[in-house]
Amino acid sequence: MKKIIFVTGDKGGVGKTFTSRLLETYLSKSDIIYKTFETDKTNSSFKRFSIANTDFVDLDKQGDADIIFESLVVNENLQINLVDCAARTMDKIIDWLNEVDISSLSNEFNISVEFYYVLGSDKDSLQILNDLIKKIDESDLPINLRLVKNYGRSDSYTLFDSSKLSNMCETKNIKTITLKPLLNRPNLTIDRHNLNFLQACEDENLSILDRQRVFTYVNQSIKSFEDIGVLNG
User: Fold this and answer.
1) Residue 221 covered by a domain
2) Range of the domain at 116
3) Domain count, the chain
4) pLDDT digits (tens, 9 = 90+) for 181-213
5) For position 89, which CATH number holds?
């Protein structure tokens, strides 16, 4: 089964693009054919760090998002479309999915839709997640929801872990990916030199040990993605 992966969270600063970059690194090392998109008009940070050629999708322009689905149909070799979503675009994506009747299309063309919701540590992030689950349930959209805890951006997820929302997610069998923090020094060097994670494992702007740190971090992250079955149908 082919799939579309939306990396969202609807808040700035939770690590959506960082998660997208790690996901793309995993896809690139998995020897599958994928395509990447971003929806941020003001800050093309995903394109800046992406491994593949990333296309921009304007969610405010009617029909512009269609390429996310149609490219999977037209290109029989393409397996996954990865979409890095800007803050405050989740409702627009859901509106588009409803407008094109993604439920029918998903069955007809055997294409699944997944939301990777990057959690924040505050109440706003939990409320947005709660609203998202409600919208999915009420619209009967065929969305496979996954949670991402990015400890590079949040030190603690106690508020979520102790909430009724956490119990609801467990009941619904919503899987969680845990991403450990990467040391700040190699992170800053990667940003300064516009490196993707694969380049950072070999780039001499990083020290030998920092290159090893990135290499180890990438492999740990890949293991986290493998554990929740990113490539499964």
Assistant:
1) no
2) 2-181
3) 1
4) 999 999 999 999 999 999 999 999 999 999 999
5) 3.40.50.300
